[in-house]
């Protein structure tokens, strides 16, 4: 019974990113099975997953092909490592497939089991790059406030989430600049002016820190966990220009935007960015196996290799079962034209309906790139005002109503975000939007009263 499961869960399972006291009062929802874009819970509810789990189940749930590949790989070679000059077919084949899909100048992959681990790898990689080039003092990495790069000490330090920094501090050599969130922080500027202003904070930071001390800049093409902050059109070209001018490495964290989410295989293509390193995870295996990594430009791979052995790696770097499943996931996505479905079908269909939510009295900005979207909630659209209640109070109410209406959307402060499985059909988009509207109406009534 659900209540028994919830009690056991509360007694023994210490959840990530969860308030344990809230959990003790109201048990966690127990998810029992899933198919396509639909989750089922222990009470028999059919829930539409507007978040693809944690932005990762790109191919949708319930794909038996992936289960079969995992079983076959476990029988044949359940584990072997890729240290000390050994390798195996799944790691070879997956690295080659990623290189085929990645931008032309990127042909090497370093594997990890998660986005956080991959970003920790990146910290060591870029510092090592400059050591080999004879500039060991070039070690500071510039990142953005409200960015998210994972939860390890390295990933959490790169990220710009203050509550994470507050839980245990930060590693040294990380510097944060402002985020390109025009809706919340752009004041009277146009989005384009604000995009330039925020990008130029990178130039100011490089000048202040001294270019001789700066190794790299890291950013998500679209900030995901920060609230699906889509940067103004001026932002990325200016960042790219500054990285080039000062010769610092550019890391695109594509843990969310990679593998079709923005309507291209990589968000770097969508935003015309030429990174030196791309962080990947999540959609790489559609979440069926924990696997991530760093795709390296030929320059980064060659320079780091010149330095001899790279003293870094994880027991599960290139895990054969994870690699085999990820490879099959990418095959299925290619065979079924999933990325084209996002660009040509799901995105235009959802965009018309998502943008129409701006008619709702509480919705200000609507954003949708590929299948990654946000709604900014506001009491006054003209002024882009914030609610009087503590930030996130209204967002939480909308999320709760969604939960009650069997729709998973997430709230980040007073923004509501979606990132459904990429295989979502137009009929399912209708259901998602209908439930979203209903939830917004119900929350608005509570907020107004
Ligand atoms: N980078 C980005 C952009 C992410 O969104 C995430 C997770 O949400 C991570 C890194 C961390 O990935 P993981 O949770 O697999 O460690």
Automatic annotation (TrEMBL):
InterPro entries: Aminotrans_3, Aminotrans_3_PPA_site, PyrdxlP-dep_Trfase, PyrdxlP-dep_Trfase_major, PyrdxlP-dep_Trfase_small. The keyword Transferase applies. It comes from the Bacteria. Its cofactor is pyridoxal 5'-phosphate. Keywords: Aminotransferase, Pyridoxal phosphate, Transferase. Pfam families: Aminotran_3. One of its GO terms (molecular function) is transaminase activity. Belongs to the class-III pyridoxal-phosphate-dependent aminotransferase family. This is Aspartate aminotransferase family protein. It comes from Fuscibacter oryzae. The lineage of its organism: Bacteria, Pseudomonadati, Pseudomonadota, Alphaproteobacteria, Rhodobacterales.
């Amino acid at each position: 019974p659900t209540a028994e499961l919830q009690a056991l869960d509360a007694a023994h399972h210490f959840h990530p990113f969860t308030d344990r006291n809230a959990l003790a009062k109201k048990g966690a929802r127990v998810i029992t099975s899933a198919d396509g874009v639909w989750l089922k819970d222990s009470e028999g509810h059919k829930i539409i997953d507007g978040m693809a789990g944690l932005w990762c189940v790109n191919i949708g749930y319930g794909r038996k092909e992936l289960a079969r590949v995992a079983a076959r790989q476990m029988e044949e070679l359940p584990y072997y490592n890729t240290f000390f000059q050994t390798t195996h077919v799944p790691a070879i084949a997956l690295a080659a497939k990623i290189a085929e899909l990645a931008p032309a100048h990127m042909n090497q992959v370093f594997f990890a089991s998660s986005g956080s681990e991959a970003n920790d790898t990146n910290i060591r990689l870029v510092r090592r790059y400059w050591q080999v080039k004879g500039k060991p003092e070039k070690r500071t990495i510039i990142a953005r406030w409200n960015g998210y790069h994972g939860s390890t000490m390295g990933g959490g330090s790169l990220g710009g989430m203050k509550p994470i920094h507050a839980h245990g501090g930060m590693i040294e050599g990380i510097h944060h600049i402002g985020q390109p969130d025009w809706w919340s922080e752009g004041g009277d500027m146009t989005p384009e002016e604000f995009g330039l202003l925020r990008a130029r904070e990178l130039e100011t930071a490089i000048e202040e820190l001294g270019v001789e001390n700066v190794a790299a800049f890291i950013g998500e093409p679209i900030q995901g966990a920060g609230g699906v902050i889509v940067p103004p059109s001026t932002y990325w070209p200016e960042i790219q220009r500054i990285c080039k001018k000062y010769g610092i490495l550019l890391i695109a964290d594509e843990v969310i935007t990679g593998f079709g989410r923005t309507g291209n295989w990589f968000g770097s293509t969508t935003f015309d960015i030429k990174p030196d390193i791309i962080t990947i995870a999540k959609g790489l295996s559609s979440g069926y196996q924990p696997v991530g990594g760093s795709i390296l430009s030929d320059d980064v791979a060659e320079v780091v290799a010149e330095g001899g052995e790279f003293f870094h790696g994880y027991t599960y770097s290139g895990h054969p079962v994870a690699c085999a499943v990820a490879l099959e996931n990418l095959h299925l996505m290619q065979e079924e034209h999933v990325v084209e479905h996002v660009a040509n079908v799901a995105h235009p269909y959802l965009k018309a309906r998502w943008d129409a939510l701006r008619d709702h009295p509480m919705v200000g900005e609507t954003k949708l790139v590929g299948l990654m979207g946000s709604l900014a909630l506001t009491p006054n659209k003209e002024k882009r005002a914030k609610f009087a209640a503590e930030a996130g109070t209204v967002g939480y109410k909308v999320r709760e109503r969604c939960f009650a209406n069997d729709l998973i959307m997430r709230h980040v402060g007073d923004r509501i975000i979606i990132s459904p499985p990429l295989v979502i059909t137009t009929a399912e988009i209708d259901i998602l939007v209908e439930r979203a509207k209903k939830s917004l109406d119900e929350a608005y009534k509570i907020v107004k009263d």
